[in-house]
Design goal:
The protein is an alpha+beta fold. Helices cover 38% and strands 17% of the residues. The protein has 2 helices and 4 strands. A hairpin with a 2-residue loop joins strand 3 and strand 4. About 5% of the residues have low confidence. The structure holds zinc ion (ZN) (2 copies). The site of one zinc ion has 8 residues, from loops.
């Protein structure tokens, strides 16, 4: 009988950086690709600091304003909905 237990993957659950192939330290916040410490850029979005891969950091250079729009919509959305509700109630009350 030969030993049937063999290490199948060779302990390969270490993610590799998509940019340079080095050992990754974490996933990109946007595309979730593993990146190493040298190939990510830290972006401060609100209270949190995100690590973005270089591709996302470059393509997302103008997306900070989009992030701000999302914040504005988050705050303004419920207010507009409430205003609509009040408006409808006033019409119905007539
Ligand atoms: Zn890298
Ligand atoms: Zn990315």
């Amino acid at each position: 009988m030969t030993g049937q237990l063999q290490l199948a993957g060779g302990g390969g659950d270490e993610a590799k950086c998509v940019t340079c192939g080095a050992k990754a330290v974490g996933p990109c916040a946007r595309c979730h690709a593993p990146v190493c410490g040298n190939c990510c850029e830290l972006t401060e979005g609100g209270a949190k600091t995100w690590a973005l891969c270089l591709t996302c950091a470059r393509s997302g250079a103008g997306s900070l304003s989009r992030g701000w729009w999302q914040v504005v919509l988050w705050i303004a959305g419920p207010i507009v909905l409430l205003a609509l509700l009040v408006f409808l109630l006033e019409i119905l009350a007539r």
